[in-house]
Specification:
alpha/beta, 14% strand, seven-stranded parallel sheet
Length: 260
């Protein structure tokens, strides 16, 4: 038996990275899946992958910035899969790495619209369905950037910091309905985005990829950039009954780069 047998999960941000890894991890644990992403072609590819693992899945093109789109995927999950037990908010928008004095507040708004308000939109849309089930789990995907502050990343860090505060607030509000709300807080994630970063640094600085990776891992006591699959397993933990008495908490998954 899988940890998520009989459960239905809505997962946002199902692209080539952590969202896909999470969908596959949930499928291996037996969950039925309603997958959300803006790119329909990529979404269909992931749906085919998880269906090949023997679970039911639907893909619904969704922009989490749009509350009606969030309501639509939740209604589809109920209609096709029978309900919603779990919500994973992993859609995100990265920063432009611009110092505050040069930043445009319109860019900050766009970052917050996805990273914070997008998560709130999907959670709010799913709430009635979670209540119908008598219990549930909401997992936010935050970021170490909200804790280990770096220059020229204020917009992204602030959006993820707001998400961590909301995690606690919603946990307090939803507890009476047995709906848990927790956050997984990754640092570096080895996957397509970091691979592109390593390639870019290597080319722009004329150094080897190994040197770029060594610079990153120098700050990570476990000596490895955490693979996206390991982050996904932490999300499974919060989604499953293994964490049934845990709510309002954040779990750092960063190889020891930051304690706190």
């Amino acid at each position: 038996m899988g940890l998520l047998d009989g459960k239905v999960a809505v997962i946002s941000g199902v692209g080539p990275g952590l969202g896909r890894a999470t969908a596959l991890a949930f499928a291996r644990e037996g969950a039925s899946l309603a997958l959300a992403a803006r790119n329909e072609e990529r979404l269909n590819e992931v749906v085919a992958e998880v269906e090949a693992l023997g679970v039911n899945a639907i893909g619904v093109p969704t922009d989490v910035v749009d509350p009606e789109a969030c309501e639509r995927i939740c209604a589809e999950a109920k209609s096709v899969l029978g309900g919603i037990d779990i919500v994973v908010n992993s859609a995100f928008r990265g920063d432009t790495f611009t110092r505050f004095e040069d930043a445009k507040m319109a860019t900050w708004h766009k970052i917050f619209e996805v990273n914070f308000f997008g998560a709130m939109n999907l959670t709010k849309a799913a709430l009635p369905y979670l209540r119908e089930r008598g219990a549930g789990s909401v997992v936010m995907v935050a970021s170490m950037s909200a804790k280990k502050v770096r220059e020229a990343e204020a917009g992204y860090a602030a959006s993820k910091g707001a998400l961590l505060v909301a995690t606690k607030s919603l946990a307090a509000e939803f507890a009476a309905d047995k709906i848990r709300v927790n956050a997984v807080v990754p640092g570096w994630i080895w996957g397509p985005n970091v691979q592109m970063y390593v390639d870019w640094q290597s080319q722009s600085r004329s150094i080897s990829k190994e040197e770029v990776i060594a610079e990153i891992t120098r700050e990570i006591p476990l000596g490895e950039v955490p693979p996206q699959e390991d982050i996904a397993e932490a999300i499974v933990f919060f989604a499953s009954g293994m964490s049934r008495m845990i709510t309002g908490q954040s779990l750092d998954v960063n190889g020891g780069e930051y304690f706190g």
